[in-house]
């Protein structure tokens, strides 16, 4: 079957109905049906057959059946089939940040490019990875079930503005509080 046919079949199998939450893709164990020419770029753009998918509702629909399995691969999963796609970095991008409260009582809420909302906290931690070559930070927030969002540069700047000093293992760090957890962003410079 062609990739175009696979995509149409996949769309037809995604359960539709009222917005009651996400489908239970973690419970589905359909057979693997191969790779499909679908890619999520680092900036959050979804591509199909090399062309950006311009319809946000379609991207949102696909995002609800996205799964990151223990083999390190990303799949679109329905009750009857599973196809592998390519993800350049994280499958989502955190494009908006809302902060409420102050200090340890602060709560950070992120909105992704597919309109998922995530409150940073014990079940949705923040992390910052450094590129070994450039030392450029790459910040992420956990969204759901083994799926993360890369935090957009403008949103990361907001985090930096909210950062406060905190000592960790005797070393001074800058970081942010959310839901009672301190998330280090980077060490305090000399």
From TrEMBL:
Pfam families: DUF1285_C, DUF1285_N. Gene3D superfamilies: duf1285 like domain, duf1285 protein. It comes from the Bacteria. Residues 23-90, 91-185 form the DUF1285 domain. This is DUF1285 domain-containing protein. It comes from Atopomonas hussainii.
């Amino acid at each position: 079957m062609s990739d175009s046919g696979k995509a149409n079949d996949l769309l037809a199998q995604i359960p539709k109905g009222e917005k009651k939450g996400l489908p239970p893709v973690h419970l589905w164990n359909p057979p693997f049906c191969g790779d499909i020419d679908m890619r999520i770029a680092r900036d959050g753009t979804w591509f199909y057959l090399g062309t950006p998918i311009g319809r946000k509702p379609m991207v949102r629909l696909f995002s609800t059946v996205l799964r990151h399995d223990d083999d390190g691969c990303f799949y679109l999963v329905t009750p009857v089939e599973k196809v592998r796609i390519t993800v350049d970095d994280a499958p989502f991008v955190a494009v908006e940040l809302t902060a409420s409260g102050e200090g340890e009582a602060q709560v950070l809420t992120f909105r992704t490019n597919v309109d998922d909302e995530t409150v940073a906290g014990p079940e949705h931690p923040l992390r910052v990875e450094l590129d070994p070559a450039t030392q450029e930070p790459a910040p992420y927030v956990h969204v759901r079930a083994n799926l993360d969002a890369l935090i957009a540069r403008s949103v990361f700047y907001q985090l930096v503005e909210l950062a406060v000093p905190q000592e960790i293992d005797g070393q001074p760090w800058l970081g942010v509080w959310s839901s009672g957890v301190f998330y280090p962003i980077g060490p305090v410079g000399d």
